[in-house]
Amino acid sequence: MAQAAAKPRKAVECGVPDVQQFLHPLMIKNYGTWKYHDRPRPGVLHHVARSGDELWTVKCGTQRQMDVGTVRKLCDIADRYGEGYMRFTIRSNVEISVADGARVAPLIKVLEDSGFPVGGTGNSVSMIAHTQGWLHCDIPGTDASGVVKALMDELYEEFKREEMPNRVHMSTSCCEINCGGQADLAIIIQHTKPPTINHDLVGNVCERPAVVARCPVAAIRPAMINGKPSLEVDEKKCICCGACYPPCPPMQINDPEFSKFAVWVGGKNSNARGRPTFMKMVTANLPNNPPRWPEVAAVVKNILYTYKADARPWERLSDWVERIGWPRFFEKTGLPFTKYLIDDWRGARANLNASAHVRF
Amino acid sequence: MAKPMHPTPMLDELEKGPWPSFVSGLKRLAKEKDYAVDILGHLEHSYKTRRGYWKGGTVSVFGYGGGIIPRFTEIKDDKGKPLFPDAAEFHTLRVMPPPGMHYDTGTLRKFCDIWERHGSGLIAFHGQSGDIMFQGATSENVQKAFDEINEMGFDLGGAGPAVRTSMSCVGHARCEQSCYDEARAHRAVINTFLDDIHRPALPYKFKFKFSGCGNDCMNSIQRADMAVIGTWRDNIQTDEALAKKWFAKHGMNELVNDVVARCPTKAIQVKAIKDLRKDAHLSSVALDASQALEIDNKDCVRCVHCINVMTGALAPGKDRGASILVGGKRTLKIGDLMGTMVIPFMKLDTDEDREKLVELAQRAIDFFAENALEHERTGEMIERIGLVNFLEGVGIDVDANMIATPRTNPYVRIDDWEGEVAKGEARKKAAA
């Protein structure tokens, strides 16, 4: 035993496993030869293969950060009411596929009875792309799981229905690095004050030239503070992005009061219709207010329901704004348009109205 | 039975409401595990003070340099003792998922058993890079958990300046729009770079993502340094029975407003059947006894909108493959970048085809390793050196599909104009 402990097991560098072993038999049989699909009801996909085989898929939401009890409960459901297979979507929804259409209704019932909302298909508000936050991240300005839970409680019915003009993808991010990614509607921490520097620690903890190089606006320079090698920030230049914080934790950018939320709209990864688009900041300075972030939820719901009421079928949020224009977006949502929303970063001229086009 | 719970009045609020609650899940774990009791206390402290309290460090498994995200608590008393001692270490194992994130329940149950034994019992399906995140293990238990997960045939993913874990869409397994075998391409590429995944030594991260069509369900264009997005070269396929069924249900207004008017290049027209043109690059399909759709595939950009709306009635063509885009990334530090087109089309049907993709990926990573600055992503490097230098370094011929417009400024030296023209002519001849 002592010998075994002294010589650790060598890893088998096996990489990504072959997916075939995890596929429902009908997926193996019809691999690459599906013909079309439809949606009999929200939360259910019905795929038809060229062979004529049919496969029903029931989709439900989860909390992403799952205890083993939750995962086992889903497995029990997939075994008893499904056919032993499931997959996860990129937004942490679970999809259980069955060859027997008669299983669909009982599967929906048991999922809902067990607390997993069935939905997330078609023109719904899907589960929010979800980062780590206070639970596990080393640089978070806020929590992720809690923000997502609080918002999905508010948007629960929109997840279960397909009543939006087109699908709505949302994301949250606990700092401006934006791990949540582009989305129709994103909620992202926006720092509003330069970092607070613990000069006692910088010299020992940080590789100072690397931190200087990390700053996008060259606002950081080496300095001797109280006789110790440290860093100083030109606070007038600082854009409060937080890029210096990961390589140098003594440059504390997170602040219980001054780390605020911004809301962004109109990101789209899909190539459908127009090219993919980046999201745009439409409001900021919302308080980071756990455990339920009501101020953020109010803005999100306002934008979503304005879009829902006004957009035409198949318009994603970006398509809708492209049609109505930004002035009317701000008019309809009542969100204030301020000078802080006029881009002045590199490439900013592309975001100005270089035309005489005005909607009246 | 675990020790008594810390009071968690703020987290308790997150047990209310209809959406599944991660707090309730943590509380279930806390009935049995002191570890989870202290995680709840730790998180409640963050909620109260609105700050994070995890610091990184160095923890890895034998033989690997990456794949574990170390976390040590910073909530300590005056003497430096952790206030939540059972959660003083909360490391995550990043484990690469199967392509398409398909599982059988037996595999998931085994994960649960392993993680109940060695970890906190909390698993995230999945992280934003695609990893299964086994969240919360002590330094001592990381190796034990990894050994058992590894015995199951799963491997650690990337962290730090490394090739990262990848994702692919549901694809061939269950999607009619899938234009190549995403799972095979995913595996062929990623399993070539395991050394670059497990032993971080690149300037910064490098991500691949695999989407089967232009809907890009993996968000590859804005998340991947190299995005592989399915497309096709020939005509959109049509199915008259399904087209008639769609039209009977949805009618002319929806056809015009939702399909024809939303085509970004106006490639689709509604026509009387008698007026349909006949040409090799046209697709057409009857909608009823007199009306039809006609698509000029030369004008189509493969955006897949019409196929999304009329699934089955319209479908990707038969000559399928993928486009390759490079340089997508998120915010820091020069702002978000979309990937840009570098290979408009490549076949991915055979092992030889996939080998060409792997070779391209290898050249892109080699060039990145040699030319990117520290902490610079591929997109930022391209912005700094220009796309043409990247193309020449990686050995890709220029193509007019790479641009939105030709240059709008005259600041360029055209020393070898004739030579480049001749190269273009030679390429045209070779392709003909």
Structural class of chain B: alpha+beta
Please describe the biggest sheet of chain A, giving its number of strands, its sense, and whether it closes into a barrel.
Answer: 5 strands, antiparallel
Backbone CA Rg of chain B: 26 Å
**Average pLDDT rating of chain A:** 96
CATH class category of the largest domain in chain B: Alpha Beta
User: What is the CATH architecture descriptor of the largest domain in chain B?
Assistant: 2-Layer Sandwich
Oligomer: heterodimer
**Helix content range of the residues of chain A, please?**
25-40%
Morphology call of chain A: globular
The CATH topology name of the largest domain in chain B reads: Sulfite Reductase Hemoprotein, domain 1
Model description:
The complex is a heterodimer of chains A (360) and B (432). With 360 residues, chain A is α+β, with helices and mostly antiparallel strands. Chain A folds into 3 domains: 19-113, Alpha-Beta Plaits (2-Layer Sandwich); 133-192 and 256-346, Sulfite Reductase Hemoprotein, domain 1 (2-Layer Sandwich); 196-239, Alpha-Beta Plaits, CATH 3.30.70.20. In chain A, 26% of the residues lie in helices and 21% in strands. Chain A has helices at residues 2-6, 25-29, 68-80, 104-113, 145-154, 156-160, 199-205, 208-214, 294-310, 317-324, 326-333, and strands at residues 34-41, 44-49, 54-60, 65-67, 85-88, 94-98, 170-173, 185-191, 196-197, 220-225, 228-233, 251-252, 259-265, 280-286. Chain A has a 5-stranded antiparallel sheet, with helices on one face. A 4-stranded mixed sheet of chain A has the order 7-8-13-14, covered by helices on one side. In chain A, strands 9-12 form a two-stranded antiparallel sheet. The radius of gyration of chain A is 24 Å and the shape is globular. The model of chain A has no long low-confidence stretch (mean pLDDT 96). Chain B has 432 residues and is of the alpha+beta class. Chain B folds into 3 domains: 9-151, Alpha-Beta Plaits, CATH 3.30.70.2500; 167-225 and 322-431, Sulfite Reductase Hemoprotein, domain 1 (2-Layer Sandwich), CATH 3.30.413; 237-315, Alpha-Beta Plaits (2-Layer Sandwich), CATH 3.30.70.20. In chain B, 35% of the residues lie in helices and 16% in strands. Chain B contains 14 helices and 17 strands. Chain B has helices spanning 9-13, 22-30, 34-49, 105-118, 139-151, 182-190, 194-198, 220-223, 240-260, 305-309, 351-371, 378-385, 387-394, 417-431, and strands at 54-55, 68-69, 72-73, 91-95, 102-104, 122-125, 132-137, 167-168, 208-211, 226-232, 237-238, 268-272, 282-286, 291-296, 314-315, 320-326, 340-346. In chain B, helix 6 packs across helix 11 (351-371). The model of chain B has no long low-confidence stretch (mean pLDDT 97). Chains A and B meet through strand 1, strand 4, helix 3, strand 5 and helix 5 of A and helix 1, helix 2, helix 3, strand 1 and strand 5 of B.
